[in-house]
Amino acid sequence: MKYWLVVFFLWLPCANAVELLQNTEARTYHSLNGQWNVIVDAFDVGDKRQFYRDASPQSPSDLLEYNFDNAQKLNVPGDWNTQDDTLFRYEGTVWYQRDVNIDKQAGTKYLLHFGAVNYLAQVYLNGELLGQHEGGFTPFQFDVTKQLTDGHNTVVVKVNNRREPDYIPTMSTDWWNYGGITRPVKLIELEERYVSDYAFEYVSGEQPAINLRVETAGAIKKGGQVQFAIPELGVSESIMLNEQGVGQVRVSVEPRLWSPESPKLYEIRLAFEGSLITDKVGFRDIDIAGTEILLNGEPVFLRGISLHEEVPYGAGRAWSEDHARTLLTWAKELGSNYVRLAHYPHNEAMLRMADEMGLLVWAEIPVYWDIQFDNEEVYKKAEQQFTEMLERDKNRASVILWSVANETPKNETRTEFLSALVDKVHQLDPTRLVTAAINTQSTTEYGHRIDDPFAEKVDVIGINSYCGWYQDTPEECADYRWVSDYEKPIIVSEFGAGALQGHHGNADQVFTEENQAKVYRYNLEMLDNMEHLRGVSPWILKDFLSPRRPLAHIQDYWNRKGLLSENGIRKKAWYVMHDWYKTKSDPEKQ
Ligand code: GCB
C-alpha cells in the first residue's frame, strides 16, 4: 500500500482539525502530576455554585459552601475508584483543582495538555473556561498563553464519568468505568513557532525511502526551515516550509527494518527555531496479500494476547511506563509477538513500550456492543476518537491494525455506520490495516460461517468466539469447522474461559483452572484447523474488574478469564497457550 501522495494531501486538514501536539514527552514542560484537591459533586451543584472560580471567602460573613484548600486529595494521574473506597462504584462529577505557580516568559507559548480524562472534562484556568473534551481515552490540550498569569494560577477540571446512551462507549461495558484524570497532565512551554506535528512513513520497494511530513504552528511569520537528522543513517536534511508552515522530504535510505524479532528504533532529530525534538522511530512495512498478512514482505503469524489497561497488580487504570513494561513483559513471556490493546486507546507509554520491546499492536476505539448507530452525532464522536488516537500514535511502528469496533449487532444501520468509519480510517491512514472484532457468524450444519456483510469492508477479519464457554462443550470445539465468505486473513481476536486462580477440581467444573485449560486445549485444536488463520489474541492476559461479574467467592466483580490472576499469578491455561505458541514460532527468528 503505497499512497504517499494521498497521505500528504489528506493529513493536512486532519492535523489542523485535531491540533494535537506530537510527542509531548520531548517538549519542555511542567508536570502537573501529583496531588490535586477534589470535591465530589454527586448532585451537580458545582456549576451553579461556581466551583470553577476556586474562590475563598472575602469576609467572615461570606457564605461559600466549598473550599478546595481543605478538600480531599487524589493523585493525578489516577482513577478515583481505587484511591478512595467510597468512590469505588461512583459515577458522576468530581471537581479537581490545583495551583500552578509559574515564572511566565514573554514570547513563550503555553499549552495545557491532558493525556486522558474519563469521560467528560471541562477545563478552567483562573476561573475562565478553556473548553470541553469528550471521550475517556485520548489526549487533548488548550493554548493557555493568554489566560496564564505570571505567578499564581489555578486550574480546575470538572470531570464526569456518568454513562449516557449517546456516548462511546455507551451504557454497558464489561470493564470498570474508572473515572478521573487518568493520564499525565503537562503545562508545555513552546517557542513562538514550533514543530507541532510530524509523520514518518517507510516506503519499501526497489528504491526504499523514508518520507517525513512536518508541520509547524505558532506566530504568523511563515516559511523557514526545519533541520531533520537520523544520525545513525547519516541523514541530515533541511526541510523548507511552505506558506502554511508545512514541509516534507523524501530521503532514499535503507534502514534496518523494525520487527518483533529485531525492534530496531532510530533516533530522529528535528531542530527548529532554537528547539530540538528527538524521537525514536522504527520503520517497517505492513500489507496483505490474499489471506496472508505480510510484515516487511514476509508472512507473519500473530501470536498474541488481549489486554485491558489495568495495573499489573490489583485494580486501577494503568498509565505509567513501569505498568507498560510489566504488562508487556508478561505478554512476551507467553510467547507473544502481538498484543490486542482492548477496548479503547491505551496510554502512550504502552505504544512506545511496544515499539521498544517488539510487539505488534492492534489498537482500538470503544465502539463496543450496541452504541447508537443511528445517531449522526455518535458517528462524529467515533471519528473524533479515532482521529485523536491516530494523531498520537501514527509514528509507532508497532501499530499495524486499527480496529473500529467490537462485537456489534448485524444490521444495516450498524453496517452503514461502520463502513463509513472504515472508509474514513483508510483515508486518514492508508498505511495500516483496518480490522474489527466480529461475533455474528452464522451456524450451519457443517460449522460456522463468516458471512457478516461488514466483514467485506475490513482488511483483516477479527473473530470473537467463546466455544466451550458461552456455547457448546469444550469437546465440541475441536469439531468446529469455519468457512469464510471472504478471502481475507482472519485473527481470532478472542476466545477463553473463566477460572479463579487456585480453584482446582474436575476439568468439567466451571471456574476451575483445569476447566479453563481444557477449554483452551480444545479451542487450540479448532484453531489448528482454521483456514486463513493469521493470528490469535485470547481473552485475556489478566483478570480485570467488571461490574457485570458478581458471582460471590469466584468472581467478586472480576472477570476471571485472565491467564494470570489479578496479581499476576499464572493459571494452568497460561502454560497451554505458551506451549502452543512455541509450536507457532519460527526458531530461526528467535
Ligand atoms: C467479549 C467481549 C469482552 C468481554 C468478554 C467476556 O466478547 O468482547 O469485552 O469481556 O467477551 O468475558 O465475556
Task: Write the topology of this structure.
Blueprint: H1 4-18, E1 28-31, E2 34-41, E3 72-76, E4 93-102, E5 109-114, E6 117-118, E7 120-125, E8 128-134, E9 140-143, E10 151-160, E11 180-181, E12 185-190, E13 193-203, E14 209-218, E15 225-230, E16 235-240, E17 246-252, E18 266-272, E19 275-281, E20 286-289, E21 292-295, E22 298-299, E23 302-307, H2 321-333, E24 338-341, H3 348-357, E25 360-364, H4 376-393, E26 399-406, H5 412-428, E27 433-438, E28 442-444, E29 447-450, E30 460-464, H6 474-477, E31 482-484, E32 490-494, H7 513-528, E33 533-536, E34 544-545, E35 558-559, H8 572-584
The structure holds (2S,3S,4S,5R)-3,4,5-trihydroxy-6-oxo-oxane-2-carboxylic acid.
Q: Radius of gyration over alpha carbons? A: 25 Å
CATH topology heading of the domain at 24-190: Jelly Rolls
Report strand %.
25-35%
The CATH C-level name of the domain at 24-190 is Mainly Beta
* Largest beta-sheet characterization: 8 strands, parallel, barrel
Q: Which hetero compounds are present in the coordinates?
A: (2S,3S,4S,5R)-3,4,5-trihydroxy-6-oxo-oxane-2-carboxylic acid
Termini separation: 28 Å
Number of helices: 8
Number of strands: 35
Q: What is the CATH architecture assignment of the domain at 24-190? A: Sandwich
Mean pLDDT comes to 95
- Unreliable runs: 1-18
Helix- and strand-based class? alpha/beta
How do the strands of the widest beta sheet line up side by side? 23-24-25-26-27-30-32-33
| Basic shape | globular
Portion of residues within helices:
10-25%
